[in-house]
């Protein structure tokens, strides 16, 4: 990759395309390059499909304005549910304390506000994710060891 052909803004569109393709090929969530005063960061977002209680993210390269997927009715969108627990950071979500360990919670588990329900690893640091309200876990929206984005719905507690 070279930063040679640039537009008036100083950005090489071919470089951006190459970086976006590299993200897809390597399954990275973001990449950043810098040369002199020019710094380019390309990142992907993961969209959750709300057709089943446990949905895998669909990777979408973000290079320019990407139209949002067709909105599901509000009652089916877990992000709008009053009991949704969202990821406070980008990282990898783990349902248990160690590989093969019993998950912290399952659908039907009773939780109290402040109970550890997941762990999100970010930059080699394991962060406890705690219940923001007391109730019963009615839906788990992620799989164990799944990459998560900031604000992504993780589970619903009613």
UniProtKB/TrEMBL annotation:
The keyword Lipid metabolism applies. This protein is a component of the acetyl coenzyme A carboxylase complex; first, biotin carboxylase catalyzes the carboxylation of the carrier protein and then the transcarboxylase transfers the carboxyl group to form malonyl-CoA. Residues 82-158 form the Lipoyl-binding domain. This is Biotin carboxyl carrier protein of acetyl-CoA carboxylase. Gene3D superfamilies: 2.40.50.100. The keyword Lipid biosynthesis applies. Keywords: Biotin, Fatty acid biosynthesis, Fatty acid metabolism, Lipid biosynthesis, Lipid metabolism. Pathway: Lipid metabolism; fatty acid biosynthesis.
């Amino acid at each position: 990759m070279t930063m040679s052909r640039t537009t008036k803004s100083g950005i090489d569109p071919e470089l951006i395309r190459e970086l976006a393709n590299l993200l897809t090929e390597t399954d990275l969530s973001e990449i950043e390059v810098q040369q002199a005063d020019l710094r380019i960061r390309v990142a992907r977002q993961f969209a959750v499909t709300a057709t089943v209680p446990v949905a895998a993210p669909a990777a979408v390269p973000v290079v320019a304005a990407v139209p949002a997927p067709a909105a599901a009715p509000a009652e089916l969108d877990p992000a709008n549910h009053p009991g949704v627990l969202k990821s406070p950071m980008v990282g990898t979500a783990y349902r248990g304390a160690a590989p093969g360990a019993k998950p912290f919670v399952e659908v039907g588990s009773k939780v109290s506000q402040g109970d550890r329900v997941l762990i999100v690893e970010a930059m080699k640091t394991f962060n406890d994710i705690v219940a923001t309200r007391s109730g019963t876990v009615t839906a788990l929206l992620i799989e164990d060891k799944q990459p998560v984005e900031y604000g992504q719905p993780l589970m619903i507690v009613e």
